[in-house]
Design goal:
331 residues, TIM Barrel, eight-stranded parallel barrel, 11 helices, binds ligand PBG, ALAD, magnesium
Amino acid sequence: MFHLPIRPRRNRKSEGIRGLIRETSLSAANLIYPMFVQEGTENTPISSLPGCTRWSVAGLVEECRRLIDLGITTVDLFAVVPDDKKTPTADEAWNPDGIIPQAINALKNALPDITIMTDVALDPFNSDGHDGIVEFRPDGTYEILNDETIEILCRQALCHADAGADIISPSDMMDGRVAAIRATLDSEALDNVSILAYTAKYASALYGPFRGALESSPKTGDKKTYQMDPANIREALREADLDINEGADMLMVKPATLYLDVIAAMRAHCSLPIAAYHVSGEYLMLKSAAASGWIDERSATLETLLSIRRAGADMILTYAAPQAAQWLREQ
Ligand code: PBG
């Protein structure tokens, strides 16, 4: 026998002791489920995002009833917009009779306790597929207009808040939009509506399946003039300082697993609640590896979500939310 007075394995010797010293928890209350809603009565499974569906308003309500039973309190709504409603100025984004206000009304009527977050950005409504208004110049170059976009984002945020959204979640990465949205909401006595800012949203390769689900890919170029360079972390803290000063209630890092260092840095940097978005590509990497029999979906998914919590995220947006909540219940 070695003389080893210090043996860390003593703290791992039984499930009881492991439970006593466990540093991080994961529960359904930490999860937010991103959901897609479309006009009409069809619920359409999304082949590029297995397990996810483009819901009709009625289908959305029924699915949310199931989520609440699983302990998931909050959903994030994204609009599926038919091509003939997309315009260069994304006018449908703030239509009070549009699909998002309809969905909010129906959900709040049927399930008054549900927490509704809505995505604010122009891409599903913009015929150019960008998060902001695109100005094309005669010389063939183009620019995503910041301040003109913010005006429309404010109308969109107001439209969602008027319909009863609890949390407005701007995912566009325009400069100054949190302050502008806050001021707009406050001027309409909607000071109780929260803002979850996409603070450090990176120009990631992992959004492809989501853009397929919404048919919202940019028609020209990429999103690198507004989404962040994956090489940068100090810039994320600069964005955090801005969003805090502009009145954000919660900050987000997106994607999650490739950016755990950013989550941890932001956690150390400020006291606001932090969300992480486990995006479509990250979800599909797990799904496809599991479908091939290469990993165990359940343990790999729960380990992934736990790791995002360990890095410092309070809440996680994930397409795995219902399945994870079910697994956590069975544990
Ligand atoms: C766009 C938006 C995107 C996602 C959420 N909001 C895609 C993008 O920026 O192109 C991606 C989510 C995912 O991949 O799951 N405003």
